[in-house]
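Repro:
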Amino acid sequence: MSEPLRSLISRWREDPAGTYRSWFLWEERLKNFRSIRRGLATVVEEMEEGTFGNVYKGSSLETVVGSVSEQRQIFKGADHAFLWKPKLRIPDIYESPENQRAFGRFLSACACCGDGEELVAAIRALDERKIKGLGPAAANLLYFLHPTLMPPFNTAIVNGYNALTGAKVKLGKWEEYLAMREGILRLNAAHRELLSNDLGAVGGLLFDIGSGRYAPPPREDDAEARADWEADLARVRTEAGSARKAREAAEAEDLTHTQVQGWLRDLGVALGYEVWVAANDRSRRCGAGLLGDGCLTELPPAVATAPGGEAVRLIDVIWLEKGRAEVAAAFEVEHTTSIYSGIVRLLDLALGAPGSATRGLFLVAPDRREEDVRQQLARPAFRRVADLDVRYLPYGELERHREAMGRFGQGLKAVEAVARRLQP
């Protein structure tokens, strides 16, 4: 089917009314990307702070999804998935504050993801919550966050994919979307020179096939294509099961991400610092209260408005000198999550904050993850880390010494004494 498909793609690219010319090459498309991303940041902030409310109409989410729906014909109706359906009580992010916060954390995590594996992990974590009515239609939001990693999703795109490949993708299930994503990535890679790194192009092609504008090329290998689809779906299900077991094992450990953030919060207060806890974690339960209790509710303007300020807001714990907009230390706690994103946030702080905060940058992780930390820091992209003196603080050292450091320590000396230098 390769040559007939190449011919189809070539004709589609020249069609003035096809999605390639009418949407993908549309001058306003990239501008809309930026506004949608900014809008999603507002949605996340409101959900984290509990100010989002329980009504879709008039909400920041409606504004964002409305912007998506206005992206020409390919995204028409994108808001249907988020409209409140009272008889079905879906999607259940309006009546359940817990589900709403989970969705906000999902969007926040996806915005900070560095690769496809992290995005898939975030999707699986959301899927395991079984939030009614919150299915792969949300992938349209992910597309605008990561257009080279996540393809858009709607009925016409699914129909086009099934018609082109012989697959049997069903609407409404994340595992089906993830399996389709695998096939779309292969399809895009095979014809990249006619499509784009941006998966909107191949999504538009599938949309035009699925909506009937173009007929798919005749298939001679239905059985083979169907076998590929079934293999993709089986692999996605197997990987999901393995990921769930790994996550459950990690969650069963005595130490949790939130506990360690609580330790760092309390230690910072004991050492005389003002403390900032990540904006998306402040409302988490910690001990008898919330993780954000007793902490700053706003970063100093000089830090918040510096380059990379949006990412800095998500650093797990920051210690600031009292009464000054000066960062003394920053900690990224990498319990089970990707170390990559944490390093990027620390770099955003170090290279963008006032005074170039190059001292007191710590990656805090389980003792067993030291090698993971070192491997990530060996990446060419992190060659500046050596100059910034980022250190590795193992859970074990923090747990054993935190009380003594709080009682007898002064400044960062005690913390630096138990942390380990990292040489990429």
